[in-house]
Design a protein that fits this description.
Elements: H1 29-32, H2 39-43, H3 56-69, H4 74-88, H5 101-114, E1 121-125, E2 140-148, E3 181-192, E4 197-201, E5 210-214, E6 219-222, H6 225-230, E7 237-247
Amino acid sequence: MKNIGLLLTAVLFWGSVSLAQALPEEGALRHLMLDQKDELFYDRGVIPANQSSSLCGPTSAANWLQLQAETFSKEELVDLIKETGEALRPHYIEINRGLLETDLVRFLKILDTKLNIKRDFVIKGRTNFNIEEVWSDKIQILMLNYTEIRPQNPPGRGGRFPPRRDIPFPDDMLNDRPPVRGNHFVLKVFADKEKGLIGVIDPESPTRYTWIQAGTENFVRPASREDFKEFAFGIPLRWTVLSLIEEK
């Protein structure tokens, strides 16, 4: 299981292999891929009532599994996540409180044990991440760091008249709350170094392939207006690739 082209069975290619061709049609994603906010997580008690979802890591792990098989129902994937999370609880790891890369690797290993799958994983980055690692043809789980880009008041207008914007935050909160920031796992399924494009399945909007554009150093950004709208609710954020998890 060394690259994306080997993940789906009964697919033959003539000539050079196109990794994009080996992936499910985008229209099939809504039936295959799990959303980290799916009501099933609340129904099964994975996410307590009235709490938001921080299941981007486990959901990306389950969607990776689904790419390999395309045979799991969403109910089965949620149950697998729940059972794996329960196995981690004695180790003081709560899967809905956000995971580190090491926690997510432990999650993947327990998940594989339950399904009698043998895979070895490696973590790359966090201290000295090299964006070149992303251009591999392997499926990877990327950890992205994000920080909100705050709108600036136009010169000479002061703070009474905030600039026009489309982000869903009330005017009177802009200067009273800390900026939105954190980490987010996504499933990388395609990369084109020549174009600088990275295709991911975002657990926040897994019904489409989201395209992000690599910039200088480890910075990335949504590649189009539609990607910006879908990627993390379209809030202006500065994104950086911190690390990745892949098979050895």
